[in-house]
Specification:
The protein is mostly beta strands and 501 residues long. The protein is 0% helix and 45% strand. The two termini are 30 Å apart. The relative contact order is 0.06.
């Protein structure tokens, strides 16, 4: 049955649809069907309204039905469709433009893979352009190609995929990005992202090297020639700033990646002390352009059990001005803490458990802080997390407990219940959070809402799936190009989450 679905949820049944039908756009923007019946007869028909009733009006045409299956209408071309035909080999397909008179333009694109899926035809490109995903090409993985009609010749150019960015996922050697050891992502100010893919922790020759990449708002990916350094990034005072863990200093370079790294600011405050000290853990720019940093001492067991009982430190929050001058805003640089001296929950200042910061700005200069508060028992063993959001404005501080708790029995990657927060311009009072396998929204009116993925991770993560059904491990969360979108790094892909309002 052919039905319509209104924006208010109203469903209206129009008329039967023959089995084996594909719905396509007609020359006038209406509904057109292509039906292949048993025994290879085929039919094209347009949906028309006659006498107050919908009917199918059969069209005369010379479509080469024995080889080609229509996919979608070519943008701005009347009666011309993208069509797909299976090749002679097991991993070969062809794509071409064909109109209903049976004319096949000179350009035929040869594609490699066992399966082919049409991704989209970008409306902002030439009318003869199509993005196609080819799964399981001879090299393995998935490849996205852009098919473009370039008269008088044709070509297929690689856009994004297996060979463009080699990574690792599920034991394979092909992936879109390499987020295995974590990634830093920040908005570039033009609706896109700058990504720092961290170095892997083994010596395998096949392991991907760390990389700096740009992802445009339209999805174009480019890899910088500049070698990445550090493990935290921000765009501040017109340059890309990173924290160099080896030298415990802030370094910077031009945002186009065309100049070498230079040491910019050094301070003893960048190190929280102790063995395996991660140093600066938060590096964010507020809405006025001021750069903020935070360090944190973790009294609980961390990755590799390097913190517990072996380190002491001093959590600090501060800012750095355009001249590289450091100012401490919260915390005491002289006060060192250990698991034995860590204050109990009821007496602990918010900055001691800081995990991330986001800045809403506005007249009240609202700031948000994510705190993964650690509860210890009498023997200074880790018990559980008590996550909370802290709202700071010119009038003071408010603290809001978050409902999700992860105890010591959860798997390693989910030890901290929330990873990052971000806010979107034009959406005051909304805070978006990432957990191990989910994306959440918090408001004071509704509390915590799950937007995508799942709240509680499974031991193996969740299977790859389209939003909102499933997310693999969430690696980062960042504002999208406008007030309704978020970028989500999930396993080895950059996804776009579009909000419903």
């Amino acid at each position: 049955m052919l039905r319509t679905l209104g924006t208010d949820g109203t469903v209206k049944t129009l008329l039967p649809l023959p089995r084996g039908s594909l719905l396509l756009e007609s020359a006038t923007g209406g509904v057109r069907r292509y039906t292949k019946f048993t025994g290879d007869p085929y039919e094209w028909a347009d949906l028309v309204l006659m006498g107050g009733e919908y009917q199918w009006r059969v069209l005369s045409n010379q479509w080469p039905f024995d080889h080609w299956t229509p996919l979608m209408k070519v943008h701005r071309d009347q009666d011309v469709y993208w069509a797909l035909a299976e090749g002679q080999g097991a991993r070969e397909f062809s794509i071409a433009h064909i109109d209903l008179s049976g004319v096949t333009p000179s350009g035929v694109w040869k594609l490699r893979g066992r399966k082919v899926t049409v991704v989209r035809e970008p409306s902002n490109t030439a009318p003869g352009s199509l993005f196609v995903a080819c799964s399981d090409p001879p090299e393995g993985g998935t490849e996205v190609v852009a098919c473009r009609l370039e008269m008088p010749t044709t070509s297929v150019s690689r856009w994004l995929g297996a060979q463009a960015n080699v990574g690792e996922v599920d034991g394979q050697s092909q992936a879109r990005f390499s987020f295995v050891r974590g990634v830093e992502a920040l908005p570039d100010g033009a609706g896109g992202l700058i990504l720092l893919e961290n170095r892997r922790g083994n010596s395998s020759e096949a392991a991907p090297a760390p990389a700096l990449r740009s992802v445009s708002a339209s999805g174009q990916v480019s890899t910088w020639s500049l070698e990445p350094r550090g493990n935290r990034m921000a765009i501040a005072y017109g340059q890309l700033v990173a924290y160099d863990t080896q030298n415990r200093a802030l370094i910077r370079t031009a945002t186009n990646g065309q100049s070498a790294w230079q040491t910019w600011a050094s301070s003893s405050h960048f190190a929280s002390g102790g063995r395996h000290d991660p140093g600066v853990q938060v590096l964010r720019t507020d809405t006025t352009g001021l750069l903020w940093f935070a360090t944190r001492y973790s009294p609980q067991a961390g990755d590799g059990d390097v913190y517990f009982g072996r380190a002491n430190g001093n959590p600090l929050v501060g800012n750095i001005d355009a001249n590289g001058q450091v100012k401490i805003v919260a915390g005491d640089p002289q006060a060192l803490y250990t698991p034995q001296s860590y204050p109990p929950l009821a007496q602990r200042p918010w900055y001691m458990d800081i995990a991330d910061m986001a800045f809403e700005g506005g007249a009240a200069q609202v700031s948000w802080v994510l705190c993964n508060r650690v509860e210890l028992d009498g023997s200074t063993n880790f018990v559980r997390f008590h996550p909370e959001l802290v709202r700071i404005d010119t009038q003071g501080i408010q603290r809001f407990a978050l409902s999700l708790e992860i105890d010591r029995n959860q798997i390693e990657f989910s030890k901290e219940p929330f990873k990052q927060i971000c806010v979107l311009p034009g959406r005051p009072g909304e805070v978006f959070l990432s957990s191990a396998c989910g994306v959440h929204r918090w408001t004071q009116a509704k509390g915590l809402e799950l937007l995508a993925g799942q709240a509680v991770p499974t031991p193996g993560g969740v299977l790859l799936g389209q939003l909102p059904a499933g997310l693999n491990l969430v690696k980062f969360l960042a504002p999208g190009a406008e007030r309704r979108s978020l970028y989500v790094g999930s396993e080895n892909s950059v996804l776009k989450l579009v909000l419903s309002d």
